Amino acid sequence: MCGIVGYIGQEQAAGILLDGLSRLEYRGYDSAGIAVISDGKLTIRRAQGKLSKLREMIHSQSPEGKIGIGHTRWATHGRPSETNAHPHRYGKVTVVHNGIIENFSELREALIKKGHHFSSETDTEIIAHLVDEELGPKTPTLTAFRRALHRLKGSFAVALLHEFEPDTLYVARSGSPLVLGLGEGENFVASDVPALLPYTKRVLFLEDGEVAVLSRKNIEIETLDGKKVQREAKTITWTLAMAEKAGYKHFMLKEIFEQPRALADTLRGHLDLVKSNVHGDGSGEIFKTKADLEKIDKVYIVACGTSWHAALVGKYFLESNLKTLVMVEQASEFRYRDPILDKNTLVIAISQSGETADTLTAIRNAKAKGAKVLSIVNVVDSSIARESDGVLYTYTGPEIGVAATKTFTAQIAALHLVGLLLGRKKGSYKKDEAEKFLHELLEVPGKIDEILKQAESIREIALKYAHSEDCLFIGRGPQFPIALEGALKLKEISYLHAEGYPAGELKHGPIALIDQGSPVVAIALQDDYYEKMMSNIQEVLSRQASVVVLATEGDRKISSLAADVIYLPRMHPFLTPILAAVPMQLIAYYIADHRGHDVDQPRNLAKSVTVE
Ligand code: G6P
């Protein structure tokens, strides 16, 4: 997730672009840059680090120009650095981009064979090369732009300047958002509404597969195939604060709703890798040969907090497909033990921030003993990513709510990718089965969307329990970690006492807590654990608990048993934990919000724990 802005008008563009970028910093902040045109000359300014670095640079020497584009970056392909910062220029063409170009390695190789030189590691730079290649004496920029976009696979929002066209700004989108702002003698473009609000409230939302050409007086929209599009402008009534959260009350809720996009990006960003082609972040290269991988006799997954819950879910899939012992450890325990680690051990570290002190020390200890370290990280080039032998990034964009949501489900998806990648390389995962599973994995974002459509009824169920003081979450198999995560979410933001338990352990203690009206959230999907879960539900019901069940759609039996049922789409049992996590997040959110808590910044908690 990155932020794009563009301006064409009567004012100096640099200040307007910087101001817009400052309102999009929530979309990424590892580097930023702008490009402006004046007197036939295009000037680019870029800086690594937060936007303040770019602002300082521009403050001392502001480039002139009344047309420009800007970008704030959250690295995906290519580490955060000045050379990877946008805008990217090739020939007469300069672009900024948000999204992931899936076929970038292929396109890049083809361009290199034709003699192109690349100055960055980004997928974005490809776009500038392709458009420049398509340009010709008889080919106008718009045609070249459209032709180049047709060659891209993946998601993009792009803004483009041609050095010798100071009166035209080109933009396009497919899968990543772009909104156009209409002014008087000036027009704007941005990834999101907050960047536009200080200047105009009249906007046009660009749709997927559309290109727009902005001049000072006019905006023309057409499809990628050149058909004209007529669209009415809308007037935005949001305040700036509302707009930053895209109209959601809290970042956490926004991030819960972003999950279809976050997962789609994480999966799409690694498809080449899973198909065993060498890919950007290099995790395919830890094990150069099948023999290297066969030597691995055990895997430790180490993590903290919510990331540890993702690790617990991943164990089931990895063990089943690698046919290797997989152990999951809390990094804060692992680092102080003396685990058996050697060159035949693979340690998988999971961390949203990539900076959690315990996880970082755990991988340092493991590396010192010769183990190989592969990490799953959200923040590109963070300490854990840098110190690992290989890294697979979750492409969720920055997560602002302290309680992890979109990064959790993306971590589970990333673990599935690791399982597919290593299982295929080792030969322990059959090709046709792996392909079938990958196909179903790619359907997960759409299934999450279906669950999110039930948010209102989930809210109604959650509010029935908003005044409780305790809540028990139960599940079995790969759903047990989701019970843990459901309890953790509720604890973190609503300050209720909550416990997650493997349902089979109820009889060994927690059932003593059950009393009339005690809330129990049970995950009882139609999988191998279904009958056992039904018995556990009967057990708590007979002690007069109030049960909320997460069930498989179409399960009639369950509706006669429990008053509150949340239905999940039917999927492969290794994939349903991702689905079950979503109602858990919503239940916690609605209860916490109802109780009036600061959902995004719960008391005593920090987003990233860099101390022991
Ligand atoms: C903190 C956060 C949690 C997170 C945990 C691990 O406790 O509040 O949401 O799960 O750290 O963080 P990491 O960045 O390593 O995933």
Total domain modules: 3
Structural class by sheet pairing and helices: alpha/beta
Q: What is the gyration radius calculated from CA atoms?
A: 25 Å
In total, how many beta strands?
25
CATH class of the largest domain: Alpha Beta
**What low-confidence regions span 5 or more consecutive residues with pLDDT below 50?**
276-280
Shape: globular
Overall pLDDT: 92
Main sheet properties: 8 strands, antiparallel
Number of DSSP helical runs: 22
Any guess at the CATH architecture of the largest domain?
4-Layer Sandwich
Strand numbers in spatial order across the main sheet: 3-2-4-1-10-9-11-15
Cα separation of the termini? 30 Å
The CATH topology of the largest domain is what? Answer: Glutamine Phosphoribosylpyrophosphate, subunit 1, domain 1
Beta-strand content: 15-25%
- Cofactors, ions, other ligands: 6-O-phosphono-alpha-D-glucopyranose
Q: Which superfamily, in CATH terms, is the homologous superfamily of the largest domain?
A: Aminohydrolase, N-terminal nucleophile (Ntn) domain
